[in-house]
Specification:
Elements lengths: L2 E7 L4 H10 L3 E3 L2 E7 L8 E7 L4 E6 L16 E4 L10 H18 L13 E4 L8 E9 L2 E6 L6 E5 L3 E3 L1
Length: 171
């Protein structure tokens, strides 16, 4: 049975691992979103959109551990640190929830809503209220950008991920 699995990668190696998985014939998913940033190489400093990983250092792959042995070589791919859970599949609807979350992010960016939040200090206990990680808790590592926070989850391996600030409340 085809299941989705999480692969931890080295920093900024996600696109390379995504391509290598595709070349192996495996289905992979590397969720990204667009963020406006200043192009510091230009004189007038125009705003440009860059694609940023939704989960830095993590990528998803779909395979059947009982029927397909291609997955065995994943841990030896350049840029891969490990398969999470030796490997353990993630919930079946997880990927579709991520895609829904990305559509919501895109819609919010189009609406260009300015939202203010109560400050949360570094190290504070937080809970995610929306998206694929809803109900998960963790610790605030830092503000990743003006509208995203970096959280270390209370989960196996303590993965660190960036989450929309609007989806986080103090625990």
């Amino acid at each position: 049975m085809l299941n989705w699995y999480v692969i931890e990668t080295k920093a900024r190696s996600e696109p390379e691992v995504h391509q290598a998985l595709t070349q192996l014939g495996l289905t992979s998913y590397f969720p990204t979103y667009g963020r406006q940033t200043v192009d510091r190489s230009k004189h007038a400093r125009p705003q440009v959109e860059v694609r940023v990983p939704l989960f830095p250092r993590y990528i998803f792959a779909q395979f059947d551990t009982s029927a397909d042995l291609k997955w065995v070589g994943i841990s030896r791919l350049k840029g891969v640190i490990r398969l999470l859970g030796n490997p353990s599949p993630i919930r079946g609807d997880f990927i579709s929830q991520i895609q829904t979350e990305l559509m919501a992010i895109a819609a919010a960016q189009i609406a260009d809503k300015a939202i203010t939040f109560e400050p949360i200090e570094k190290g504070a206990r937080v809970k995610i209220t929306a998206g694929p990680f809803a109900t998960y808790g963790g610790s605030l590592v830092r503000m990743a950008s003006a509208d995203r926070v970096r959280i270390m989850l209370d989960a196996v391996g303590h993965p660190v991920l960036d989450v929309e600030r609007s989806a986080v409340v103090r625990a």
